[in-house]
## 1
Amino acid sequence: MTYGIRRREFIAGIGIGLIASPAIVRAQGQPVVIRAGALKLIHSIAPYFYEQFVPAGYKIEVLPFETPTECKNAVVTKSVDFGAFGIAAALLGAAAGEPVVVIASTCNRGMAIIAKKDAGIAAIKDLKGKRVAVFPGTTQEVFFLERLRMEGMTIKDVEPVRVSFSEMHIALSRGDIDAYVGAEPGPGVSLSSGIGTLVEYPYSTAMGSLNMVFGTHRDVIAEKPDLVRVMLGIHQRATDFASKNKDAMVAMASSKLGQKKEAIEASVPNVELTWKLEAKQIEQSKIYADHMLALKQIKRLPDFSTFIDTSFVDAVKPT
């Protein structure tokens, strides 16, 4: 089955007036190359479906990154045109005055607090005095710190260990840590292999299940608005396709992330792919920023009137 779409179908989906202008079409018939950054996580799997929904005259290149900060930095330095990364990385950049703008969502949920099986850890309070892997500067870190606060605890009540998301399951299986605050598919790997047990999905805070966003450089919006519209059409279709076709999502994630099918299948229920950027998510982003300010992770709040731009998402017609 071919999932590519005809140009007229693509244009119909993103609306009249959103056709790319000749100004961004390269000379001599060469396609316009769009560089998109993605993370090596299942909730950043939509970009790997982009190629199936690229209209004539364009070519997509997906570049994988290990951490949200690396992907956000690639957007800031214009190494990529667009990128999918956590709201934490986006806020850290915007609060520091970096020209990163959130233009869509990528994924909600996708987080989990996992403990070593039979370690006697069944709740947040059981983590006291335990070695817990947390990656600094990530969305997961802020959620974890808030969950600790809600339980009358602080980060001083645990022994935080810096471990990247891709290494957390391995560190848990080796016994280097007692638990971790991870990102899928890591939790799915730990649960499906029987090495880990679920402590909780940390979605009970006022931040809900907010996680990954889709951003670009402010210059791209100002200088290439037509390119942004084309990219949002691709992002919308790829996201909707992946979320509605779980088998394809599992197959793609297994291929790109190098994980077993069983692990990916265990992760899918904890992943909500989305491109929509609605009032609820914006409000959760502001609450999230307030937490980061209180934790002194940022020195000031970003200007949300420029940090988040919903105009492109608002113009996208539903498929």
## 2
Amino acid sequence: MKRICAVLVAISFFAVVFSCEALSQDTTSPEYDSVKKTIEQSISWAIEKDFDALFRLWDDNMFHFWIFSNSLVVGLDSFKVYAEQWKDPEFRGTRFQFKDLRIVFSRSGDVAWYSCFLDDCGIFRGKESCFENVFQTGVLEKQDGRWVHTLMHGSYPIDKIPEHYVRRFYSKSINPK
């Protein structure tokens, strides 16, 4: 019985190690730099406000959900309508930083998924604000020789929601008047 348990523990250990290795990011992939650039462009477009570049980064059937419930967008045409808000001349991106960016490729090499913590800053009406440490995930697919987003999601872990959002969205439920 002890021998069977030891064998099962050993098999479980190697299965976990093998699975983690299989899912670790592959910075040696010939596509790594292209995927990383596409991910960076999905945020950096706002600095120059290059909407054509932004829309080229997305699949026609894309899915987007970014922090607030009104950011749920399905389909590129709907995303173009959603993006109208960023055309306000008083808005522009200023800087961004990806932290702990991890990119994993499918076995076939034509799909990649990623995760990171993102700082995304911009100016609106002369005041800079930043989404800091947003947990961002996404899926990209290589289509016709270029990488495009099929899915992007950004959220805060429940224990990391910035205090000003807690006050803004939950103050009435905490202190009903």
## 3
Amino acid sequence: MIAITRSLFAQKRLLKDLVVRDLKARYVGSSMGFFWSVVFPILNLFVYMFVFKMVLDMRWSDWSADGEVPLIMLVGILIWVAFAETISRTTNCLVENANLIQKVVFPSEVLPIYLTGSSLVNMTLGILVAMLGIVWYAYISPTPIDWEAVHRNVEPGEPLPRVMGMGWSLLTLPLMMALQGVFTIGLGYILATLNLILRDTYHLVGVFLTVWMFATPIFYPDVLVRQKGFGLILDLNPMYWLIDSYRDVLVYGTWPRMEFMVPFAIVAFGTFALGAMFFRAQKDRFPDWL
């Protein structure tokens, strides 16, 4: 782990160039270029507003404010898409760059790093769009909550409504993004190496990511899972801890819960350490497998 970390620090300039190149390549030939990174989240927000609010009248609780559910879903999907996209691309990154790994002295450990960095930058632009939506629904056009009616009608065990807003908790966003990056890179190291040993890994990962997405409360409230007796799925799901922490900070302006952030930090660094050691131990065999 120490050796691979030292190597990454030595390749800072290369990492920066690769991230910039990847971000440019996303929209090469497009007339709007990088601006699509902003347009996509805006379009998603309007789609979620129409489908889940106007058509399905989806609510996280009986007291959900206007715009709350679409913003909750938008934040969740932004985080998940960044994670899933990176994992999918990272799993196959060694195979796709076989010419570099076989013919020149190339630091292959930078491949999962730059893919993660590129996705996080793209995700950040989407988060800024989500924050604009939160400002609108929390401060410009807020939905007042009748607290007397809430306390009079809320059932025992039913979650109370939460007020949308922003606060000093936004300062924790860089920390959460860093932990997300560490977790994603560690998992990427493991899967990229396994994909060289067993090429079916790439296809299995695609199926697993779909299952993992629906096991994570992105489009439905977590309370429904616990009410059905499947709370263990949430208790063992690091992406649930992470996405719920992002929602606390971005949508409600509260500090992320330590019972989520501490376990996620442990899992993130543990995954990175395991992935880095596995990747480093097998690195000399990569040209033969390719």
